[in-house]
Amino acid sequence: MTTTTPWTSTAAAALADALETAVHHRGVPGGVLLLGDCAGTGRLVHARGTVAPECGPAAPDEHTRYDLASLTKITSTWALTGRALTDGLLGLDEPIAARFPELPLPGGGLTVRQLLTHSSGLEPVTRLDRYLLTDRPLAELLCAAPLVSPPGREHRYIDRGFVLLGLLLAAAHRRRLEVLADDYWAEVGMNETEFGPLRRSPQVAPTEQRLRGAPRTWGVPHDPNAALLGGVAGHAGVFSTAADLATFAEHLLAGDRWLAESLRPQIAIEAGRSRGLCWIVTDAGVAYHHGYTGTSLYLAPATGRYLALLTNAVYHGFSASRLTPLRDLALALLEQDG
C-alpha cells in the first residue's frame, strides 16, 4: 500500500517561484501548477502570468483549458489502449495485422507494445500532409511506409505510432476516437477535457501565431498533423485543465492496474530513464510525460504525489529551454522521497 507523502510548503513555494521565473524571464505568458496526492489531502494550485495578452489581465486558474499536445497520448490513447487490451480487442504482443489483416507489412507486423514504447521503427517525421491526395485509408498508408530501424531495437520518439494506435482503437470498437475518449473521461470525472476545436474565449489558452498577420492558433490543435485529422488524433488534439489532470492522476494513483503494468521499464532512453508503456520512468520510480505546447504530468506512485503543469509556452514560438528549470525541479522534488 502506498504511504502518501504530502507536498511540503517549501517544495510548493520553490515550484511556484520557478513558474514565476518562467513567466517573467523566459517568455511564458502564464501557467498553472497543481500539486496533489492520492490521499486527497488537498490540491495546491499556483497560477502565474496571464492566459495570454488578448485574454485580459486575469491570471489563469485550474479551470483554464490548455492544448495538451502530447499529453493526449496518455489521457486518451494510452488509457483507452489499456481498456482495449483488458477487453480482448487488442493484443499487446501480437502483430497488429492479426486483428486487422488489411494492414500491409512492414507496419502490420508491429505490436501494440512497440507502438506504446516508441520502439516501432516507424518514420519519426509525421508529415500526414503527404497523404492529402490519396484515397487509401490512413492506417494502411502508415503501415506501408518503410521502417527506419528494426522494431524493438531502439527508442525513438514517434508520433506516427500513436496516430496509428488511435486509428486502431476506433476500428476495434467501431466507434470514433473522440466518442471513446469522452466516455472514458466522463467515467473518471474529467468533465473539462475534450478534443477540439473549442470556441475562443479567455478560458482557452491560445498558442502560436503561425504566420505574421494571420489569426493565432486558438481552440484548435497547435499540432499540424492533428489539425489535418480534424483535431482528433491519437498523438495530439486534446484540451484540458489542471483540475481535470489532477482528477486523472488521483484516479491512476488509487491503484490503476494498467498504470502499474505500464511503469515497468521497457527500453532505455538514457542513463536513469527508460520508456515504459507510453510513460517515461526514472530509476527513482517517477513517471512523467510532456506536451510540446508546454504541458507536463508527473506521478510518484511510491509517495502518492503528482504534479500537473499547464502552460502555453509556445505562444512566442517554441523554445525547449523555457520550462527546463521548472520541469527539472519538479522531477527532482518528486524523486527525493521516491
From TrEMBL:
Record InterPro entries: Beta-lactam-related (IPR001466), Beta-lactam/transpept-like (IPR012338), Diverse_Enzym_Activities (IPR050789)
One Pfam family linked to the record: Beta-lactamase
EC numbers for this chain: 3.-.-.-
Gene3D superfamilies in UniProt: DD-peptidase/beta-lactamase superfamily
Uppermost EC category: hydrolase
Every Beta-lactamase-related domain range: 17-330
Keyword Hydrolase in record: yes
Name by which UniProt lists this protein: Serine hydrolase domain-containing protein
